[in-house]
Description:
Elements: E1 4-7, H1 11-23, E2 27-33, H2 40-44, E3 47-52, H3 63-72, E4 77-79, H4 89-97, E5 101-102, H5 107-114, H6 116-125, H7 141-151, E6 155-163, E7 166-171, H8 174-192, E8 197-201, E9 207-215, E10 221-233, E11 236-242, H9 248-264, E12 269-278, E13 281-288, H10 295-302, H11 306-314, E14 331-338, E15 340-341, E16 347-348, E17 355-357, E18 364-368, E19 383-391, H12 394-407, E20 409-411, H13 417-425, H14 427-430, H15 438-441, H16 443-446
Parallel strand pairs: 1-2, 1-4, 2-3, 4-5
Antiparallel strand pairs: 6-7, 6-8, 9-10, 9-12, 10-11, 11-14, 12-13, 14-19, 15-16, 17-20, 18-19
Helix pairs in contact: 4-5, 5-6, 7-8, 12-13
Bound molecules: adenosine-5'-diphosphate (2 copies) and magnesium ion (MG).
One adenosine-5'-diphosphate is lined by residues 82-83, 87, 163-164, 192, 236-237, 288, 292-294, 381.
Amino acid sequence: MFQKILVANRGEIAVRIIRACKEMNIETVAVYSDVDKDSLHVQLADEAVCIGSRQSKDSYLHMENIISAAIQKKAEAIHPGFGFLSENAKFVELCESCNIAFIGPSSTVIENMGNKANARALMIEAGVPVVPGSDAKVKSYEDAVKIANEVGFPLLIKASAGGGGRGIKLANSMDEFERAYHMARNESRVAFNDDAVYIERYLIHPKHIEFQILADKYGHVVHLGERDCSLQRRNQKVIEEAPSLLEDALRIEMGECAVRAAEYVHYENAGTIEFLVEDGAFYFIEMNTRIQVEHPVTEMITGIDLIQEQIKIAAGEELSFKQKDIVFDGHAIECRINAEDPKNNFAPSPTKVTGLHVPGGFHVRMDSFLYTGYQISPYYDSMIGKLIVKGKTRKEAILKMQSALSELIIHGVKTNQSFCEMILRHPMVQEYQFDTKFLEQKMNVLLEYDDE
Length: 452
Ligand code: ADP
Ligand code: ADP
Ligand code: MG
C-alpha cells in the first residue's frame, strides 16, 4: 500500500480523499493556490504545498508544479478528485513517466473514453446502444450541416471534450443550427481548449441513469448499481438518488451493458457509465473516467467506500468482492449545496461563512469544506457541500433529507438550500415522476418560497 498520497484538488472532494487516506493510515500532501491557504483541505492534510496563484491554470491545472510537489514530498501516488486534471490524459502520462501512480485509469483509457466523441465510437463498436447521431467526427461546418440533416431535429451539438454541462447547445431546426454550432465550439474552446464537436439527437423527456463501475488491474469488473441524476439545471445535476425505480429487467440489462462497456475498453479503477433512458430504451451518453460528485449515494446503499477502493486498485490490490457479493440496502439522496442565489438567476455568492450548523443523525452525512469564518473563493466552483441521507425507503429518505435541510444553517452565504427543499416537496418528485427537463419546466413554482 502507498505510504503517502498527494491530493491534486481542493474543496470538499480534497477533504473527502484526505479522510479516506487517514482511515487507511496513509499520509497526505495537500496542494493549494495562494487564495486557498486557509482552506480546510490544507489544514487536514499532513503536509501542504502552494502550487501557484488563484487562476486554475496557474495552480490546480499546472501539471509541472503538481508533479514537482509530489516528487519533493516523496508522494508515491496522486489522487486527482473530479474536475481539474482528473480526465487529462497528458497529466496521467506525466505521472506515468515520473513513476507516480495516478489513482484512476491509464492515459490510454482516458484518451479513449474521456473524449466523448471517441467514447461514442468505441461504444458503437462494443455493441452498446448510443443516442442516434454522428458516427464520424464533424470535420467542417458543411460536414456538420450534412450530419444534422441525417440525424434530424431537434439535435444537440456537443463538445467532445465537454463536461459539467458545458459545451452543449440545442438546435430545434436548421434555422438555429449555425448559431448553435458556433456557440458550442466557442464555449468548448474557452472552457476546454478544444473545439471538436459531435452531434446527437435531442431526446425530449429522458431520465439520466448512470452506473458506478469498479475495475481492478486483473480484469475484474463489477457495477455498484445505478444513480438517478435526472434533477438537473442547465444539464448539471442538483439532486441525485440511488437506486432508481426502473423496472428490474431494464436495470439488470443496463448494469450488464455498463460492465461490458468497461470490459471492452480494459477499464481500470472507478468510473461511471452514463445513460439516458426514454420510453423503455437506454442510450449511452458518456463515461466519466473519475470519481463523481454524487458517489456518496452509492456508498450509502452498498456500504463500500469508493475512494478507498480507488486507492486499493491503484496500489495493485484485487477487488475483494464479486458482483454477487454486492448488496443494496435502502435508498439514498444527495443534495448539492451551492453558494448561489436562486432568486437572482443562481448568481454565485462567494461570501464569508459567519455561522454554521451542520445537521446530524442516523444515516445523515455532510461532505463539505466549510467552517465558521471561511471566506468562499470566487475563483472556483460554487459547490460548497453535499448533504447525503439514507432511509429504508425512498419516502423515508425524502423525509430525512427535508429534516436535514431544515436543520442546515449557513449564515452569511446565499445558498440553494430552499430550492432543494422546494424540489423535494413537489408531488411529482415525491411520486418519482420527473425527467431531465423537470427542473427547468417547473422553475417558476420551485422558486416561490419565502426566504425568511
Ligand atoms: P459529475 O459528473 O461528477 O456528476 P459534474 O459533471 O458536475 O459532476 O463535474 C464535477 C466537477 O468537475 C464540476 O466541478 C465540473 O465543473 C467539473 N468538470 C466536469 N467535467 C469536466 C471537464 N471535462 N473539464 C473540467 N472540469 C470538469
Ligand atoms: P457532461 O459531460 O457535461 O456531463 P453529458 O453528455 O453527460 O455532458 O450530458 C449532460 C446532460 O445533458 C445529460 O444528463 C442530459 O440531461 C443532457 N443531455 C445530454 N445529451 C442529451 C441528449 N442527446 N438528449 C437530451 N438530453 C441530453
Ligand atoms: Mg455527464
